[in-house]
Design goal:
By secondary structure, this protein is an all-alpha fold. It contains two helices and no strands. α1 packs across α2. The longest helix has 20 residues. The chain is globular.
Length: about 70
């Protein structure tokens, strides 16, 4: 599986809040964004049916750190 990089434009305050939430959950911002993407794909597929492909989004997401 190839790993791709994506750049996004985001307001500074939104990034700070995202960082706060990621830290609270024990993740990096990158890992937290992957969690959000995974959850969005899961919801989409539950409502609209599975999207063709063999990728398991859980593989790309580190579990939350234990506090």
């Amino acid at each position: 599986m190839a790993i791709k990089s994506v750049s996004i434009r985001i307001e500074e305050e939104m990034l700070e809040k995202l960082g706060y939430i990621a830290d609270y959950e024990g993740r990096s911002v990158n890992s937290h964004v992957l969690v959000l993407i995974r959850d969005n794909i899961k919801k989409f597929e539950e409502y609209n049916g599975e999207i063709a492909g063999s990728i398991n989004p859980d593989v790309n997401v580190k579990p939350a750190r234990k506090k």
